[in-house]
Design goal:
Elements: H1 7-14, H2 16-49, H3 54-102, H4 106-110, H5 114-127, H6 129-156, H7 158-167, H8 170-205, H9 207-212, H10 216-269, H11 275-323, E1 346-354, E2 361-363, E3 366-369, E4 374-379, H12 385-393, E5 400-405, E6 408-409, H13 415-420, E7 422-425, E8 434-435, H14 436-441, H15 450-459, H16 463-467, E9 476-477, H17 486-500, E10 504-508, H18 516-529, E11 534-538, H19 542-547, E12 550-555, E13 558-563, H20 565-571, H21 573-585
Parallel strand pairs: 4-11, 4-12, 7-10, 10-11
Antiparallel strand pairs: 1-2, 1-3, 1-5, 5-6, 8-9, 12-13
Helix pairs in contact: 2-3, 2-6, 2-11, 3-5, 3-6, 3-11, 5-8, 5-11, 6-7, 6-11, 7-10, 8-10, 8-11, 10-11, 15-17, 17-18, 20-21
The structure holds adenosine-5'-triphosphate (ATP).
Length: 588
């Protein structure tokens, strides 16, 4: 965040033109307010003091009406400019948040609770509204109009001007004191809301697990506690708002009273001023304080908004830091495509990786993967197979060492082009709410025909499953693949890969759960897909390990050996032991 401009400053610069409009409208509004008071004072003077006929003041009253209409229009204009500013600012902020989510690196996407992120993207951005729609227009008005009124008052009656000058600062001082507290409270409110949203979504998604473990009631209490914390934070802000209003009203009433008293004494006791001047000043004084008062309310809303904007800012800064943008792949146009004979040769040169300091560490040593090789990553649970797969995929960045693709560092490849060549079939592929066909079609960025989707489904061994469904490929699938078996989800992922025809297949083999028939279908489809591709499999089945061109055997984050099955059986006791356990325990 150091040296970076705040979100508000960025928005203000982007909307400089509207700020200039606000300034001019406020100037005109100030002039209209003073003119209205002057005309009204003149009309009252003529009608009630000088007893002038109606026809002689008709023109004056006409002008007064026009000025009042202009004043209304200017107020409306100020509000409209503020609303436009708020709409643009919210649109920009939401776009920045969405851009941040879509460009987030793998580790960054995995951090934090989904519900919390959604709440910041929606609620916190919405809360930013009043900063631009109310706070800014009122602040511009407050800087211009009260000064204008004060100058006019001084020219009419110095004593009233002095009273106004002395009492006015109490309002901003009070606003600042309250505002500081409000901003902190508002940040707290958004932390509570994000926490509440996160807990709520998490509980909804894990409802079945919670019920099975008899934790539903306890989780319900946790949601209740979380919602009460949010309520308390909101009530704290409301408490400040009510106290704020009470204090502001008191200051304003008292100040107007003092000026009115002073005017009355001058007019009636000392007879040192005319009725016209006294009435003119008396009309200006409430305008002066009402502007300061409304800016006080706007200030409170503005500070609440600032707390929300600060939350958005922190989230953007956090993910930016984690994404480490300066290390992101280079731009699309600068990438030379000829460096990409596919499938590529991949080399790992002493790659070292850690998720966090003092945590699990991965050291690969030197690994070479030839074009079209079928590699099995083997090792005990937690030995770092998936981490290595993510490094090769470019989803994680090495702390030191390099992953070279066709002789070029992977970190310098363009992410979009690199991902165009990869299919990653995880154990739990994400299935979106939609139809089978929609879910298969996302396998490629290009437009695909129905025939292509049907062919991909058939290649992935889904034809039988689909034919048994009443609506076939148009059958809706629940969010997160609800209603599909683990094998069906993986086959859907394979169908996506058939559409894409990747040069590199990264496959996280299912550890458990598939029946022999489904497993054969899956193996067969993946073997077809892998014919013209490099395939790197996190292998749990002995069958897969034995048939690999090369086995990379990992132990506690270190690549302890590589080679063919027979070779490793002779050379590596740890490998032989793992195979032995597999043979005895798990069907290979
Ligand atoms: N996102 C993460 N943040 C921090 N540590 C992680 C993260 N992902 C994995 N780890 C840790 O890194 C180590 C290696 O995990 P990894 O998933 O690579 O092992 P694995 O060999 O694939 O295991 P399995 O066969 O059980 O899937 C483990 O100790 C794990 O706790």
């Amino acid at each position: 965040m150091k040296g970076k401009r705040s979100l508000i400053a960025i928005q203000m610069t982007a909307q400089r033109k509207r700020l200039i409009y606000l300034t001019f409208i406020s100037l005109a509004l100030g002039a209209a307010i003073v003119s209205q008071a002057a005309l009204l004072a003149e009309a009252v003077q003529r009608i009630f003091v000088e007893k002038a006929s109606f026809s002689s003041v008709a023109l004056l009253l006409g002008i007064l009406l026009v000025v009042m209409a202009i004043r209304t229009l200017l107020s409306y204009g100020n509000g409209t400019v503020g609303l436009h500013m708020a709409a643009t600012a919210k649109k920009n902020m939401r776009a920045a948040v969405l851009q941040n989510f879509t460009h987030a690196s793998m580790p960054s996407s995995l951090q934090g609770q989904t519900g919390g992120k959604v709440s910041i993207a929606l609620d916190a951005v919405d809360e930013a509204d009043s900063y631009f729609s109310q706070y800014m227009p009122r602040m511009v008005e407050t800087v211009i109009i009260p000064i204008l009124i004060l100058v006019v008052t001084f020219t009419q009656h110095i004593n009233s001007g002095i009273i106004m000058l002395v009492t006015a600062p109490f309002i901003p001082i009070f606003m600042i004191l309250v505002g500081l507290k409000t901003k902190n409270k508002s940040e707290e409110k958004y932390t509570q809301l994000a926490e509440f949203a996160g807990t709520f979504l998490d509980s909804l998604q894990g409802l079945v697990t919670l019920k099975i473990f008899g934790r539903a009631h306890r989780q319900q209490q946790e949601i209740e506690r979380s919602s009460l914390r949010y309520r308390d934070a909101t009530m704290d802000i409301l408490k400040i708002a009510f106290t704020n209003t009470l204090m502001l009203e008191s200051i304003v009433m008292l100040s107007i009273g003092v000026v009115a008293l002073e005017l009355a004494i001058q007019l009636l006791v000392f007879k040192s001023m005319s009725f016209h001047t006294a009435f003119f000043v008396l009309l200006l004084v409430p305008e002066f304080y009402s502007l300061l008062k409304s800016s006080g309310t706007a200030f409170h809303n503005g500070r609440t908004s600032m707390g929300a904007i600060r939350k958005v800012e922190t989230m953007l800064a956090d993910t930016n830091d984690r994404n480490d943008l300066k290390d992101q792949p280079i731009g699309l146009r600068t990438f030379p495509k000829k460096l990409f004979p596919m499938p590529p040769a991949i080399e790992l040169d002493n790659v070292r990786f850690q998720y966090a300091p003092d945590s699990f560490e991965l050291n690969t040593g030197s690994i070479t993967i030839g074009p079209g090789d079928h590699i099995a990553l083997a090792g005990h649970s937690g030995s770092g197979k998936t981490t290595l797969l993510h490094l090769i995929a470019g989803l994680l960045k090495p702390v030191s060492g390099a992953i070279m693709v066709n002789g070029n560092p992977l970190t310098q490849q363009n992410e979009t082009i690199w991902f165009e060549h990869i299919s990653y079939i995880t154990q739990h592929p994400y299935i979106f709410a939609g139809t089978f066909a929609d879910n298969i079609a996302i396998g490629t960025g290009r437009k695909v025909s129905r025939a292509e989707i049907e062919a991909a489904a058939a290649d992935a061994g889904l034809s039988k499953v689909v034919s048994q469904l009443e609506r076939g490929l148009d059958t809706p699938v629940g969010e997160g693949g609800r209603g599909l078996s683990g094998g069906e989800k993986q086959r859907l992922a394979v169908a996506r890969a058939f559409l894409k025809r990747p040069s590199i297949i990264l496959f996280d083999e299912p550890t458990v759960g598939l029946d022999l028939h489904t497993e054969r279908i899956l193996q067969h489809s993946i073997a077809t897909l892998a014919k013209s591709a490099t395939m790197i499999t996190v292998a749990h089945r002995l069958y897969t390990i034995r048939h690999a061109d090369n086995i990379l055997f990992m132990d506690h984050g270190v690549l302890v050996g590589s080679g063919h099955h027979d070779e490793l059986m002779k050379r590596l006791p740890a490998y032989a032991e793992m195979v032995d356990v597999q043979r005895k325990g798990v069907p290979g």
